[in-house]
């Protein structure tokens, strides 16, 4: 079913499976995590979240149109693939610098350069494979590229979302704890206060009502934290 000769073509095919797996990990995970970041850090307004997500969405569309138009004119397809992966790594990594301290527009635009490189890399990978794989195995080869791309996305979603949720609870817990104690709430109630403050910040206005000693001023302080 899977011809061995495909996998021994390392530089001409197998390396593309690795490239798409890694690129898919980043793209699919970031596509889900970027809006969550806007929700947790900047606003609970769905319209604003959608607006702030537009740079990434528009760049994905622009890259998908531009890549087929100019890639063959630029030439050096394999170097374009390397540069695309490098851009993805650099700008997704640089987006971490926009998170703390929180820079809303930097968080909107910096990942919008790195995340869409997945589209460029995908188009180039299919082009490279189609030029090297024997026609009798072309269908299987293209299907495997799509499988590895989606498989990387599944792994990336599971892995990065778990890391994101754990780190968010850790960082939010520290800030909420400081705000709660400094505003006179009982430290013994932190187990109730921290998850309630997270829910309040995500748009549930009644989440903090069961916290002993809560006031509108303290609610606002916890929201800011």
From TrEMBL:
Q: Which residues cross the membrane?
A: 47-69, 81-100, 106-129
Q: Name one GO molecular function term.
A: transmembrane transporter activity
What keywords would UniProt list here?
Membrane, Transmembrane, Transmembrane helix, Transport
* SUPFAM superfamilies the record matches: MFS general substrate transporter
The keyword Ligase is annotated on this UniProt entry: no
Task: Indicate where this protein resides in the cell.
Answer: Membrane
Q: Which domain of life is it from?
A: Eukaryota
PANTHER family for this protein: MAJOR FACILITATOR SUPERFAMILY, PEP5
The entry's protein name is: Transmembrane efflux protein
Q: What is the lineage of its organism?
A: Eukaryota, Fungi, Dikarya, Ascomycota, Pezizomycotina
């Amino acid at each position: 079913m899977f011809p061995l000769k495909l996998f021994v073509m390392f530089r001409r095919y197998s390396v593309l499976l690795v490239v798409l797996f890694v690129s898919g990990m980043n793209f699919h995970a970031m596509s889900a995590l970027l809006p969550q970041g806007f929700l947790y850090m900047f606003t609970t307004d769905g319209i604003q979240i959608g607006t702030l997500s537009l740079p990434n969405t528009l760049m994905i569309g622009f890259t998908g149109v531009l890549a087929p138009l100019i890639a063959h004119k630029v030439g050096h397809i394999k170097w374009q693939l390397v540069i695309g992966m490098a851009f993805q790594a650099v700008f997704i990594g640089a987006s971490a610098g926009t998170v703390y301290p929180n820079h809303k527009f930097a968080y909107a635009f910096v990942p919008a350069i790195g995340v869409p490189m997945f589209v460029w890399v995908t188009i180039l990978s299919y082009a490279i494979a189609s030029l090297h794989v024997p026609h009798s195995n072309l269908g299987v080869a293209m299907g495997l590229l799509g499988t590895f791309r989606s498989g990387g996305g599944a792994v990336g979603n599971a892995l990065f979302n778990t890391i994101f949720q754990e780190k968010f609870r850790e960082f939010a817990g520290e800030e909420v704890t400081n705000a709660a104690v400094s505003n006179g709430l009982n430290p013994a109630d932190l187990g109730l206060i921290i998850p309630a403050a997270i829910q309040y910040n995500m748009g549930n206005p009644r989440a903090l009502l069961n916290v002993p000693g809560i006031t509108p001023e303290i609610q606002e302080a916890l929201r800011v934290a």
